[in-house]
Amino acid sequence: MSSNTPSSSAGGVGSADSAAPRRNSKRPKYSKFTQQELPACKPILTPRWVISAFMLVSIVFIPIGVVSLFASRDVVEIVDRYETACVPENFRNDKVSFIQSPSTNKSCTRRLTVPKRMKQPIYVYYQLDNFYQNHRRYVKSRSDSQLKDNSSWDDISSCKPEDDANGLPIVPCGLIAWSLFNDTYNFSLNNQQLVVNKRGISWKSDRDSKFGSDVFPRNFQNGSLIGGKSLDPTVRLSEQEDLIVWMRTAALPTFRKLYGKIERDLQPNEVIHVTLENNYNTYSFNGKKRLVLSTTSWLGGKNDFLGIAYLTVGGLCFFLALSFTVVYLVKPRRLGDPSYLSWNRNPGGH
Amino acid sequence: MEAEGQIEEFKEEKLSVKGFNFVDERITNGNWINEPRADVIQKFLRLLATCHTAIPEVDEETGSISYEAESPDEAAFVVAARQLGFEFYERTQASILLYEFDPVSGKKVERSYNLLNILDFSSSRKRMSVIVRDKEGKLLLLCKGADSVMFERLAKHGQEFAEQTKEHIAEYADAGLRTLVVAYREIDEEEYVEFNEQFTEAKNRVSADREERMREVAGHIERDLILLGATAVEDKLQNGVPECIDKLAQAGIKIWVLTGDKMETAINIGFACSLLRQGMKQIVINSETPENNALEKSGDKSASAVAFKASVLQQIAEGKQLLSSSTENSEAVALIVDGKSLIYALEDDVRDVFLELAIGCASVICCRSSPKQKALVTRLVKTKTGSTTLAIGDGANDVGMLQEADIGVGISGVEGMQAVMSSDIAIAQFRFLERLLLVHGHWCYRRISSMICYFFYKNIAFGFTIFFYEIYASFSGQAIYNDWFLSLYNVFFTSLPVIALGVFDQDVSSRLCLKFPLLYQEGIQNVLFSWIRILAWSFNGVLSATIIFFFCIRAMQHQAFRKGGEVAGLEVLGTTMYTCVVWVVNCQMALSISYFTYIQHLFIWGGIVCWYIFLIAYGAMDPDISTTAYHVFIEACAPAGSYWLVTLLVLIASLLPYFAYSGIQMQFFPLYHQMIQWIRSDGHSDDPEYCRMVRQRSLRPTTVGFTARFEAKSKRSKERGRDH
């Protein structure tokens, strides 16, 4: 750095301007804001703060973790993977042709044993694996205005490649609707039909605001390629709850969708017979299919992760608090040690 | 002993009387008459009042007297004499009129002196004298001059205070004061007549040796003087310059003086601002050697240039030798170069050697340098050492240097506005540089580096969640967040806290910044913006993103996420994750800043609140506008316990690594500013012992500045004590 001190000739009586009282001052008006002197809290991480923060976290987190874990453990879940089992032995090598052939018998029976008492409502889900409902082209391929309002039934610009069939717009258009899941499940318990309630499985806001009550399916699944389920053209879209559920795209390639609710309790060791129609083609992309029956807790379905994570973080904080305390007691901070300063570690680095 | 009475010291700070700032209870207010040797003091002051060439000017309205003098020093003497009771009020052709304080009567009496001769000051004589006849008819020769010429002219019996005076002069010179020795002599009538004849004859000559002859005659009578004392005048630097330079030196900043002044003045200034001190070895590279002068007179330009260069090279080589020998003894060395030598020193083949020498020296003073040379020296330092250079100057001749340096600071003042207009930063006085660098420089450095690091952090933390999601969306480009969430991230939810950080953050208060100048080294060493630090912050961002993403997708897997059995779709997962990001990024900010005013609180917590408000407002809009965010908070997320639990979990888990790291660092490996924070929080900021401990963390001892001077002095006296 170089500097130039003011010349020395300014000595003596010649210039003492700085000494004279400054009347014509340009000093700006004092304010705490502009002078950056606002009252401030200046926290630093003293051992007390660090230890108490860790302790606080562990005190809060461990109970939450325990409660969450219990909530998750309370949930009873029956998962049945059926995509291979429901293909007859002779088609096992060529599942795709089995599922694509219109003539094969797709019916299949599964037996599910209830491990524990399941309180109603019991939610029925289907679970797909390796199904990229979150692929950008797939997600984009829908027409919200068309779903909402009958007057824009021909607004299919965003629906490619499933925008029209035989020259007419499809309602509902787009890949999502086209690929609607079409396996069906029938449950029976002790030869008695278990009623599956398919009402109220979708978000209310979707039914009310996104799917119009004056919109009816039109020209749907009429193209050369049939994607999935057909829709009853006499039922308004706002009541096609399977479609509404399906149209809320999943975030991850493994996802569940609500199929319906069984509104009665199931007792332990009861055996549920499921007659399912295995229609949906997941075989061409090695997708798996599962049928899931699950109760819920206040926290939702069965997932231990939240509880375990809370316990882990809480435990870790507890451990950190302890070790900090120990280290603090064994080796208190010394102020006089300059050796950590970086410019003392490498004296050449200037 | 009464040496006190002999030393006058005029300082020019905070002066109520222009040119006078001297307080000594023993002298002022007429107290000097009570001193044991009041007669000497009286003579001393009388000499000051008479031995000069100043002309009094009486202000007609107020009756106050001001003085017009050849040099400010002289004016200072007259003013001082007036303040101490010897008021010089009129000069006529042949006399000097004073109001004198009479110690006998205790009143002011008028007194006139017949002025017989004035033996002028010249740079070769280094002294001036007057010959006066006082009322009693005594002939007096009053003389003041540089110590180098005065002591040899003292009479044997006039050396009563010589030893002490020498000591004092050394002390004052060390402090940067300009010293003069004051002495007098009574002359016999005959001697005077003889002198006057010779002097008049010499004066009336018209030949070339007139000056020489006059000098000779004057020198003849200025002998056998009786020492009265010494004066010391403070060269008026701007207020606070030495303090400022001292602080800057303590901060580890190397200071070079590039001035157009002549060498003596430059050295004087160097002493005044403690860049030089007694006992510091001076390497002077000077072109004014006798051989060079002779060569120049001979008119052979090329030959003299070659000789010049050779002599400069030789002087540099000698300097380096001296330097290497004194580094072993850890002595400070100063380098003084004049402009003519600088021409050769800055030539392509010499400048590396020159720079090497200059860097080794504690202070470097380039005098008689042209504006272009100033710029060249600055460039040399800037490009060859890679250091950041700051140039400060107030004159038009500093413009080149200001523009060449990395940072140019202009002082607006008497010398016009050119410097200010070509500078990056303008200040009104040199001493403001201290605050500019040590306080605002440090703050700015910290703010900008934390701000940039934090920007990296928050965008990496955000961006990586999007990137991670792509792994699960077969890299199709589907974003997990709603489009407007993406757009507004850097606009509303996380922008204001970082601006508040960049504008308001203070790790250490300005008072402590000034108290611990070494803090500035954090900037010079680039501690806060090293690659390690940038990468560490980026890594922290990746870590946060990883925790946010994987915790969210694991916690909100395919299972129902609330009591109603609904599963989390793209919009619910996206909203949850985004909530986590906003919380984490804002709370990370809250953890990393050390200065919370209501503004910080407002911005940080406001950013989070803003997100929820936005979510509700946006979700309440028509689904055509809000698309996937429609009612997502009110209907889906807010009633779900898992949404809130995931937010809390992810928030704490993401902050945990940073919190643990900074807790450990603060406790066991504190950086310099953190040490100062400790001092503050322990309440030791006013405990000198503690402060000393922290302040002495310098890489190398400070070599210039008055603190260093005091240390060197106490070391010297200690050594002296040991020798005896």
UniProtKB/TrEMBL annotation, chain A:
Subcellular location, record wording: Membrane
Annotated region Disordered: where? 1-32
- Gene Ontology cellular component annotations, sorted alphabetically: endoplasmic reticulum; Golgi apparatus; plasma membrane
Any stretches that span the bilayer, and where are they? 49-71, 308-330
Name a Pfam family for this protein.
CDC50
Q: How does it sit in the membrane?
A: Multi-pass membrane protein
Location, primary (coarse class)? membrane
Q: Chaperone: present as a keyword of the record?
A: no
**Where are the compositionally biased (Low complexity) regions?**
7-19
Keywords carried by this UniProt record: Membrane, Transmembrane, Transmembrane helix
Q: Check the record and name the InterPro entries matching this protein.
A: CDC50/LEM3_fam (IPR005045)
Q: Which domain of life is it from?
A: Eukaryota
Q: What family is it from?
A: Belongs to the CDC50/LEM3 family.
Specify the protein name.
ALA-interacting subunit
* Species this chain originates from: Hibiscus trionum (Flower of an hour)
TrEMBL record, chain B:
What are its E.C. numbers?
Answer: 7.6.2.1
- Indicate the transmembrane segments per the record: 454-472, 484-504, 534-553, 602-621, 641-661
Q: Which reaction does it catalyse?
A: ATP + H2O + phospholipidSide 1 = ADP + phosphate + phospholipidSide 2
Quick one: where is this thing mainly located? membrane
Q: Where in the cell is it found?
A: Membrane
Q: Which residues bind Mg(2+)?
A: 394, 398
Alphabetically ordered keywords of this record: ATP-binding, Magnesium, Membrane, Metal-binding, Nucleotide-binding, Translocase, Transmembrane, Transmembrane helix
Name-wise, this protein is: Phospholipid-transporting ATPase
Identify the species of origin: Hibiscus trionum (Flower of an hour)
Which taxonomic lineage does the organism of this UniProt entry have? Answer: Eukaryota, Viridiplantae, Streptophyta, Embryophyta, Tracheophyta
